[in-house]
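Input for the complex:
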Amino acid sequence: MTLLSVRDLNVTFDVPRKGAMPWTAPDRLRAVKDMSFDLAAGETLGVVGESGSGKSTLARAIVGTIPATSGVVSWEGTDLTALSPGERRRHRADVQMVFQDPLAALNPRMTVGDIIAEPLRTHRDVSRTDARNAAQAMMERVGLLPNLVNRFPHEFSGGQCQRIGIARALILEPRLLICDEPVSALDVSVQAQVVNLLRRLSREMGLAMIFIAHDLSVVRHVSDRIMVMYLGRQMEVGPARAVVGDPLHPYTQALVASVPVPDPTARRRDRQAVRGELPSPLTPPSGCVFHTRCPRARPDCADAVPPALRPQPERIVACPYHGPAEATAAE
Amino acid sequence: MSIRQATKAFLSPAANPFPDGVTVPVKGRSLWMDARTRFLRNKAATGSLLVLVLLAAFAFLGDTISPWDNETIDWGMLGQVHVVGGPSLETGHWFGVDETGRDLFARTAQGTRISLAVGFVGAAVAVVIGTIYGAVSGYVGGRVDDVMMRIVDVLIAVPYMFVLILMMVVFERSVIMLFVGVGLISWLDMARIVRGQTLSLKNREFVEAAIATGVRSPMIIARHIVPNLLGIVVVYATLLVPQMILFESFVSFLGLGVQEPLTSLGALIAQGAGQMRNDVPWMLGFPLAAFVALLFALFFVGDGLRDALDPKDR
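Predicted:
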């Protein structure tokens, strides 16, 4: 059953030109371009890509804090982008979000109990005591002492703050949880705790998740499927095991090769890391946007946008010259 | 416990990792409580707060302990004020009398009361109107923001002293008119400051979280924007009080403020300054001392509050 279906989603930002007059047309920055994917109930989709590849913009367009320029985000058949702000607000109870910076996402002037209970008090007609009890129950569920309800966010560690953020996101029992790099601000041991907490809760509550990260190993751990993004475009989609174990797109291969090995004594492998930097999204390369850094680039890559190919069932690769990683290494 | 077991316990904490019986809610330390601790540690600010309390006590209770009121003329002094009108305990004129023989202690107390009232009314108007106006303008943004801020720009560009003098001439000169005049101008700067702060606050993640949750805009302003603005608002309001007192003093110095027999610190200072050559230094000295003490105390308290509420900004 499809819970969320995204079709040809585009998000464009207007960037005023330097020194331009107010009436000149601004530059258009296409942060997300022609994105399409489906998400089934209870499924976890991992989204990976470098910084600046449009992962967070995609998440915000789905949640609705950034308007989509064109395309369809449909939730069980209703197009969310076409709803009025009031109707949209009612739908927000179903989709909740966990943010990257755990402390910045919590209002420093509110107690933890009030922060966690806020969605409940917004969407449900509950009394203050009921909301408080629900907040305490939720705190217990995410592994926080419920007697800390009157504390303030700055009295907690990063990992604890992220648990508070998760509790706030889950108190309405949403059907989809969007995690925007929920662990990248935490240190490694706490990362594991938070990731495992998210996995356990999503299983218990039958949650679908969109899990954004730039760390492939974390994403593989939590995801059923993985989507790889580059410069706002979809590069590869497929089952998590297949995408990480047998990457087909040259960009995915580079990402997999750049995952650090946590063993200081191991010899550095001959890495296939991508060279250079992410091109400016204001002036994306022609044709395949990755061709400027691609180890397999051919002259015609700069001409046409590569079609989304389906070399295996349930896999999409946006590269006509895709192939197993060894082929790249041999070249 | 083996390392493997320990790691496992560490990585996947059980649903209830704490012992039973820990259920009493712990009282959290809010940022306001932290600020209070920092403020009380600041000796200049705490001392000034004490001075301020004493001055307020003087202003509001001075009349009741003085044997004279602020308008009764001591006929026995008239004509020889510069000889017998000085401060003395025997006559009951602790601060002396003014050139028409009225008790200066009672008049200074009453003048301080007016000055404090003008200062706090101005600050209160600024806090209420300026905060709401600035927060709405900044949060809503776009066209609304443009229009609201241009209105403020226009009002700031109007020479308010001129307008106030016109108002005093057209309508009756009264304390109420003075409050209205002060209220009209005091909120403008506050609205700008609050708008600027709101612009940076509304991009913070906790506001985005509230939007994503589906909280309505008025609720976001009331619950997330304004409480986080209050620090800067409080600081600016404390610094606004002396500004408003100075403003009132200037208006009274010109003879346009409160009307006799009421007086204000500015009017008293004006009168005292006019009598300087007659060898009556107390007429200028006491109102001036009260005025200076009041301003210094307010500035120090404002500084202390700023340091206490914004410890990163020192």
